Amino acid sequence: MREVHQEFLLGLAGVSATLLGTFIVGVFFYIDSDMHRRVASSAAIDTYLRSATRWVFAAYSIPLLVTLVLASMEPLLGAMTFAVLGGILTLMTIDTGRRLLVKGGSGMSRALVVNEWLTSAAVLAAIILPWALGGWIPEAAAFVPSLLLILASGFVSTAALVMTQFDSTKGLNMATTTSAVRAGGSSPAAPEGTETRK
């Protein structure tokens, strides 16, 4: 395989750190918003969103930490780091899938369902690829396809979570408007011949 330069690994770590930092800021803003308080009323949706958030954190941490280890240490330590973090990500993938299957877990969002299937397949492929390409102790170049795949999966999952919140906001606004219209339409009419006192 082609040799991977240290600059590329450090650049990939920088991109991962930027995405992870942006995601953390977004999570803090979401927790402090009214939208989180409304969604939190549904236990299944709130539990899935917590699990999915942990998954995104783990996904961004792999290309961040593994690239730093590969750039500064021996390939064996890089392989061990990838194996440990990959195992954690696999367990979290199973957890998000299990919580999505709970009734109401997806919040009726097709984006979350499609994303769950795609990321599950991507994680499985990413865990296998380094050893399929590089043998028992893969070189740094053997990890690059997996790291890029995991980074892309984290980005897609972030986009799916954001779009789901937009859909939830739209649904809540429509429900609020419908309730207001029904409440206004059901108010009793004033009897004929009566005047409103000023």
From TrEMBL:
The chain crosses the membrane at residues 12-31, 52-71, 77-96, 117-137, 143-164. It comes from Pseudoclavibacter endophyticus. This is Uncharacterized protein. Keywords: Membrane, Transmembrane, Transmembrane helix.
